[in-house]
Amino acid sequence: MFENPSIDEIKDILKNSKTIAVVGLSPKPKRPSHSVSQAMQGFGYKIIPVRPAVEEVLAEKAYPDLESIPGSLRSQIDMVNVFRAPDKLTPIIDECITLKIPLIWLQDGVINEFEAVRAKDAGITVVMDRCVYRDYIQLL
After folding, report:
1. How far apart are CA 123 and CA 100, in angstroms?
2. What does the domain layout of the chain look like in residue ranges?
3. Where residue 134 falls among pLDDT bands split at 50, 70, 90?
4. What's the CATH fold of domain 7-139?
């Protein structure tokens, strides 16, 4: 059964992460992925948009998938923040496992216990069904 990291561990994650790849980052300002990522950018995090068919979001170059991010930039990723439907997680988790991403954050409502456990079993820290922005505001 999946269990999120403790509140203290989540605090440490937020303190120690610097670069966040955001899968499903919308270019539309009214979308939660956009406002949350813009806020995190404002708190000093580097945001890497991951969204096909978009050139850039939040003044950052966008990539169609995680594997398309150049190696030197990809090696800086501390967290992959996911704004995608729970049934679309399998290829994202596959990429994270292949690329040895250290942490996956599944936003509010992105709940897929099977995929969360699969990622955790591969050595990836997983936070599920929590908002990175709200946790940042409440914990830091």
Report:
1. 8
2. 7-139
3. very high
4. Rossmann fold (3.40.50)
